[in-house]
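Exercise 3.2. Students should predict the tertiary structure of the chain below and write it as structure tokens, then compare their answer with the key that follows.

Predict this chain's 3D structure.
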Amino acid sequence: MIHVIGVPIIVTTLLSLGMSYPLGEVTGCYCQAHIGLIGLVLALGLYIKLDLFSGLVSAALYVGCYFLGNYLYLQNGDSHLKFVGLCQAAAWGGQFFGHWLEGRKPALMDNLLLTLAAPMFVVLEVLMVFGYKSHLHALIKDLKSE
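Answer key:
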């Protein structure tokens, strides 16, 4: 559950930081294009290429995070960086605390690039609870029990 809560918070606040670097004229619109949008489009393109259904579900979730991040930026004014910093610290702290409780090191300790896979991983975790790719879900459970 820590991933399901923490990863979208991390993504939303990172996208919110992207509003500090707009692409083009600043409009004050919730759909303002910014540097974070480039990363989002690239990541979602990869997720869709890897698995169409979970990639589309990821796109729906994380495009929502993009708009929420833009909203947070536009509503918080000068306190935006403090808010984002607190959210990032809490979400990352929760991730590491959860792994510590499990007695397992986070995947990013093996390869920092795996942090780019975390948003899709969260979507797949939730979809698997509802029966998506049940054969893969069973295999993962077997590997975790070893």
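Discussion points: DSSP finds six helices and no strands in the chain. The chain has a mean pLDDT of 86.
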